[in-house]
Amino acid sequence: MNLLIFKLAATPLLVLTATRLQRRYGGTIGGVFTGLPVTSAPLSLFLALENGAGFAARAAVGTLLGLIAMAGFCAAYARSARHLRWGAALALAAATSAALFIALARLPQRPLPAAALVFPALLALALLIGRARPAAAPPHPWWDLPARAGFALAAVLGITAAAAHLGPTWSGMLATLPILSAVMGGFTHRHAGAEAARALLRGIVVGALGAAAFNLIVALAVVRLGVAPAYGAAITAALVLAWASHALFERGHGASALKLS
User: In the chain, pLDDT over 70 holds for what percent of residues?
Assistant: First the structure.
């Protein structure tokens, strides 16, 4: 019961904090906050507490690989939004993401080979999206914050309850379903245009580099170091790498290299 209360309190609070930061800074920086492991971090922690460190380590590898499918959704949407309406772009991106999830679930679930695939893939997808032209951010809909908190809480409660049946790989991968990316990307595209959506989605992919660091450290360290040291190190690494990646991309070292903007 105490763990359930912790889930009910901690997950929405984490989402609320990240959303406030996103709204304050907006654009690409707002996307970086969305790309951080706002849902997958508490989910991973609860998997460790309820199912053991070994289960959480294996699930973290699934989440690590799933980030490619999430970023693939963002890239497919951002590129197609230039030519398609939001509904068509959403359908194309969802199909791309689904195909990637199915393919990634078949890969060997080992942390270092997964990391060797994930980090270059995220960098490549961020470059593929390219730098967006300046665009005004849309007003925040009234349902934005309740939807984010509700999705995150539903994901944590649902996946942790079904973890024994899903297994570690799909328990981890389902944490990266691009629900928030779809909701906010589609809303931004519809109300502020393709460039504003591209800025948000590019930021999500850049922020996912931090999420990748988080899950890699959990996968490698939670069994050896224990829950508290491993998750403390993972959270620190996620924040540092996400912010460093944002600073690097905003200086133009990435997008200008391939002339994709």
Answer: 79
Q: Which tokens hold the place of 99?
A: 């195909």
Instruction: Record the pTM.
Output: 0.83
Q: What pLDDT is recorded for position 27?
A: 52
Q: How far apart are CA 190 and CA 196, in angstroms?
A: 10
Domain ranges (residues) in the chain: 25-258
Residue 230 CB neighbour total at 10 angstroms: 25
For residue 60, pLDDT beyond 90: yes
